[in-house]
């Protein structure tokens, strides 16, 4: 898999330190499942963090401290645990997302569907968004941040095309209209901190159908 768009180091550090909420972690975890480079980065942050905690312990350094620290960097972590395979032609997805795919009903609008995965805290939520080939989401802005990982297919966001496993993040200032590429359907896992704000009347009709109030 040729993953080209990755989370920032700051975001990987948030993941490693446990600073991300459960809903936000799902999106980063899906990327880590197909990106060995980022998984190694998280693993390293976890090892460094664990080493710092060890250093705070007021006890003499054990003779095997170095070997212990090195072993920690080799130890499997949540970041490197293999994810189960997703539905056919999807990338591997976290188990909670797989359960949502099986269980939750989808909300539909012309050319798109939405399926809730996880809520909270507050207005934050994680959901699956499906777009038919060549179709997309009406123009909108955000009142808060958004993280996206592509689970299947590809979509265009401005001048950028994101494919399977690619990760993108926007702050609350962005205004965009993501659109699946013409060669096939696209499914994304998305985390948002707040509501989507439609930029035109089409969005004001479509977003409630998809459950974006
Ligand atoms: Zn990556």
Write the layout of secondary structure elements.
Layout (H helix, E strand, L loop, with lengths): L8 H9 L4 H11 L3 H21 L8 H10 L20 H9 L3 E3 L2 E8 L5 E7 L8 E3 L3 E7 L2 E3 L2 E3 L4 E4 L4 E2 L2 E2 L5 E7 L3 E3 L2 H10 L3
Antiparallel strand pairs: 1-2, 2-3, 3-11, 4-9, 4-12, 5-8, 5-11, 6-7, 6-10
Helix pairs in contact: 1-3, 3-4
The structure holds zinc ion.
Describe this structure in words.
By secondary structure, the chain is α+β, with helices and mostly antiparallel strands. The chain has two domains: 9-74, Anti-sigma factor, zinc-finger domain (Arc Repressor Mutant, subunit A), CATH 1.10.10; 95-210, Jelly Rolls. Helices cover 33% and strands 24% of the residues. The protein has helices spanning 9-17, 22-32, 36-56, 65-74, 95-103, 201-210; strands spanning 107-109, 112-119, 125-131, 140-142, 146-152, 155-157, 160-162, 167-170, 175-176, 179-180, 186-192, 196-198. A hairpin with a 2-residue loop joins β1 and β2 (112-119). α1 (9-17) crosses α3 (36-56). Zinc ion binds at residues 3, 6, 31, 35, 37-38.
Main features:
3-stranded antiparallel β-sheet; 213 residues; 2 domains; elongated; alpha+beta; Arc Repressor Mutant, subunit A
Which regions have little confidence, pLDDT < 50, spanning 5+ residues? 69-77
- Based on secondary structure, the structural category is alpha+beta
The CATH superfamily of the largest domain turns out to be: Jelly Rolls
Gyration radius, in Å: 19 Å
Q: What is shown here, in short?
A:
By secondary structure, the chain is an alpha+beta fold. It contains six helices and twelve strands.
């Amino acid at each position: 898999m040729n993953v080209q768009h990755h989370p920032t180091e700051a975001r990987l550090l948030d993941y490693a330190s446990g600073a991300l909420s459960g809903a936000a972690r799902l999106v980063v975890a899906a990327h880590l499942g197909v990106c060995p480079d980022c998984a190694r980065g998280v693993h390293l942050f976890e090892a460094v963090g664990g080493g710092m905690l060890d250093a705070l312990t007021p006890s003499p350094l054990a003779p095997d401290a170095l070997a212990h620290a090195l072993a920690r960097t080799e130890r499997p972590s949540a970041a490197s645990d293999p994810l189960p395979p997703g539905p056919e032609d999807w990338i591997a997805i976290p188990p909670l997302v797989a359960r949502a795919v099986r269980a939750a009903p989808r909300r539909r609008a012309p050319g798109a569907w939405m399926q809730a995965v996880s809520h909270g805290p507050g207005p934050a939520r994680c959901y699956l968004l499906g777009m038919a080939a060549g179709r997309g989401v009406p123009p909108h802005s955000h009142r808060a941040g958004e993280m996206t990982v592509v689970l299947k297919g590809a979509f265009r966001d401005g001048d950028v095309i994101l494919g399977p496993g690619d990760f993108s993040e926007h702050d609350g200032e962005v205004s965009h209209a993501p659109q699946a590429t013409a060669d096939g359907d696209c499914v994304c896992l998305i985390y948002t901190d707040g509501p989507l704000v439609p930029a035109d009347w089409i969005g004001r009709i479509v977003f409630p159908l998809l459950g974006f109030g």
